[in-house]
Write a structure and sequence with these properties.
The complex is a heterodimer. Chain A is built from 13 helices and eleven strands. Chain A is α/β, with parallel strands linked by helices. Chain A folds into two domains: 180 residues, 3-Layer(aba) Sandwich (Rossmann fold), CATH 3.40.50.300; 40 residues. A six-stranded mixed β-sheet of chain A has the order 7-8-9-3-10-11, with helices on both faces. In chain A, strand 10 and strand 11 form a beta hairpin. By secondary structure, chain B is mainly alpha-helical. Chain B has a single domain, classed as MetI-like (MetI-like fold, Orthogonal Bundle), CATH 1.10.3720. Chain B is built from eleven helices and no strands. Chain B is elongated, with a radius of gyration of 23 Å. Classes of the chains: A alpha/beta, B mainly alpha. Chains A and B meet through helix 2, helix 4 and helix 7 of A and helix 8 and helix 9 of B.
Amino acid sequence: MSLLAIRNLSVTFATRHGSFKVVDGVDLNVEPNEVVAIVGESGSGKSVAMLAVMGLLPHTATVTADRLTFEDYDLRRLSDRERRAIIGRDIAMIFQEPMSSLNPCFTAGFQIAEVLRTHLGMDRAARKRRVAELLAEVGITDPERRAHSFPHQLSGGMSQRVMIAMALACRPKLLIADEPTTALDVTVQKQILRLIRALQERHGTSVLFVSHDLGVVAQICDRVSVLYMGKVVEQGGTADILQNPRHPYTRALLAANPRYDRPDTGLEPTPPEVLAALRAEIAAFDAGGSVGEARDG
Amino acid sequence: MTAVPETLASTEPRETAGELAAFWAVYRENKGAVFGLCVLVVIVFCAIFANVLAPHSPIEQFRDAVRAPPIWAGGTSKFFLGADGLGRDTLSRLIYGARISLFIGLAVMGLSSVIGVALGLAAAYFGGIVDVAISRLTDVIWALPSLVLAVLVIAIIGPSLFNTIIAITIVYMPTYVRLMRASAISELAKEYVTAAKASGVGPLRLMIMTVLPNCLAPYIVQAAIGVSTAILEAAGLGFLGLGAQPPTPEWGAMLADAREFIRSDPWIVTLPGLAIVITVIAINLTGDGLRDALDPKMRRS
């Protein structure tokens, strides 16, 4: 049985000018001990879909799904209290901006200890030991001392390590990583990716990895779902999708990656006529025709 | 905003003797705040030990000393700051008055802080109809001139020290509610709140443990300055005869009693006025220092 199963997930936001569908019929499975990526451009609904799974969307959002289950829990039917018992313990999440994801008023150690206190009810001494263990595990040197640091005293990479320590504090079965490396520079990005992969392998945690960066996805993910305008346009094995993309949007996304051998591409804004052609192509593809026909027509 | 050098926010953490030491280290940087705190300590000391410090009873009338001048204007050391129109020792009345003024200030601050935090957080967290109800209530209160509203409340519930506190709390409570609501709304939109929710924190704990501490810095300054505003307002009500009732030695009432002597014996009216001004300035300076010291970014720890 899948760890996380999503069937036909839709999220609609009520606005002053009518409703606005951000996620439109997304299907997704995450098996135990698997790293799955969701890729797509900004505004494609990646983060909103993840927040819907966590039940963290504001009241203005309407979430519907034919199926939304985590293990035996039906996430659609949980009360807030039941949901809070699961999230943070069995499903944990890390975010895009490590610097602003930590509470500026409390030390790193205190914030990790809070998660332990909420879900595991450990006593003070046990929490302190565990915090040091966790910080050491995510590769922070001198963990006892760093536990007393306030977030503004930590670098971006270190903050993200603290966030990972916090997320992994209760040994979750599923880690949702919402663009965890986007705000970091390339060297730190690599370290964090290695860390996530290493921890995933050590503990058998499943990871749902949200990103717009296909290079990052290629490094650590087993399977990829490509999201465009709230719909999954293509999914499959990572190597398969990256080497042999079928949907025109996936191809466009791959082409948008900056290439070192051709420094000019990817920096120019896309001309409107190219965008229009791409949209027509995608529409034709989704309508069931092949891409070739759309090009001919 | 007092500018504190960025260099204070050292990036190198080290073991500290304690939170209090770190707090004091930053507080000490602001010389005005230290001065304000010293003056405030003296005033608080006077208020607490009024019965030991005051040379006379604040309500005892010395028939032979009516409108006696202070010592530098030819008075005697028996009445160091002179005596008022009924022959009561001004120094003793000022010392006892500190007790009343500080009590009013702190009581109003405490009451309106609690109400402000509760209503402000509720408005920010629930939004919708709760927010509208709370915000419009504060709007209505704000639409009336503060002193007029306080007078109105006193007229309904009757003049007394306790009712003064209630009236001033009602008048100044909206400031606290608004401030808490505004900062809570902006904090709620931040990523660390989502992160806290994603770690399974309940709503009450989320508001009190996660959001509230981040809203406190401006709130504490407001509360500190609120003490001085409350003291001023109480003095205003006392001046109108609607605050503490005679013979209670309240600074505002002392001003009112002495205003007929403003030409002949100006010190009777000047001294309680000075007491009010000095107290208010001391509290405001202290509040300024508190704000700087409570900002976690300013800490060296």
